[in-house]
TrEMBL record:
UniProt source species: Paenibacillus oceani
Entry keywords, A to Z: DNA-binding, Phosphoprotein, Transcription, Transcription regulation, Two-component regulatory system
Domain Response regulatory, first and last residues per copy: 5-119
This protein's record includes keyword Transcription: yes
Chain ranges of the OmpR/PhoB-type domain: 128-226
Single GO molecular function: transcription cis-regulatory region binding
Protein name, as recorded: Response regulator transcription factor
Transferase listed as a keyword: no
PROSITE patterns: OMPR_PHOB (PS51755), RESPONSE_REGULATORY (PS50110)
Residue spans binding DNA: 128-226
Modified residues (4-aspartylphosphate): D54
Length: 233
């Protein structure tokens, strides 16, 4: 079976070698770049399955790489690996399309687990690729949601979260349950769940401020209601 291909982008050689060693021990092929410019050059010539990306680099930084991915409409999953610990940095990178954020110093074993978890989500399972609920159809293979008004692309995290809801409409999920299902980790980060719920609502709801698909159950979590309250006008 073909090994997944991960691009490691970091200007610290020791970090690159550490991540490379653990990923290759996990049967993951890697390429390496010491700057954002070098990373973009690789992405222009090769297809990668996932990117591990530092933010603070000379000659095109991590933010600019995220903007490049957006401008090319590349849905390659990205894990940020950065010494920056500020919450606003995490929120900003998630808003630019990153799927996860790991701060330095870090556990290489945990990073490898996160990489593998994200790769599993990015590669659709062998069973049915389309899930329908109400007027929404989620195409797992294309990572797209089909609405009466058109088709919208989802990130791997958004798709994983939507699939969880659509497979069990009406069930109330706690934030802890959602986090563990999507990120496959025991550590709980409520903010990550909130951020991606907001992203998802902006893509599937007619009015994200008054959601008709993903309901907030105050003090508990969220529930997918399949648009059953949507206006028939």
């Amino acid at each position: 079976m073909e090994q997944p291909h991960v691009l490691i982008v970091d200007n610290e050689p020791e970090i690159v070698q550490l991540v490379k060693l653990h990923l290759r021990n996990g049967e993951i092929h890697t390429s390496e770049a010491a700057s954002g410019r070098e990373a973009i050059s690789i992405l222009e010539h090769y297809t990668v399955d996932l990117i591990v990306l530092d933010l603070m680099m000379e000659n095109v930084n991590g933010w600019e790489v995220l903007h490049y991915l957006q401008s090319r409409q590349l849905n390659t999953p990205v894990i940020i690996l950065s010494a920056r610990h500020l919450e606003e940095d995490k929120i900003k990178t998630l808003g630019l399309g990153a799927d996860d954020y790991v701060t330095k110093p870090f556990s290489p074993g945990e990073l490898t687990a996160r990489v593998k978890a994200l790769l599993r989500r990015y590669k659709p399972a062998m069973y049915g690729n389309k899930i329908s609920c109400g007027s929404l159809i989620y195409d797992r293979a294309a990572q797209q949601i089909e609405k009466p008004t058109g088709t919208i692309s989802l990130s791997p995290i958004e798709g994983m979260m939507l699939e969880l809801f659509m497979r069990q409409p009406g069930r109330i999920f706690t934030k802890q349950e959602i986090f563990k299902y999507v990120w496959k980790l025991d550590q709980f980060d409520s903010n990550s769940v909130n951020v991606y719920i907001n992203f998802l609502r902006k893509k599937i709801e007619t009015d994200p401020a008054n959601p008709r698909y993903i309901e907030t159950i105050r003090g508990v979590g969220y529930r997918f209601v399949g648009g059953q309250h949507e206006s028939q006008n």
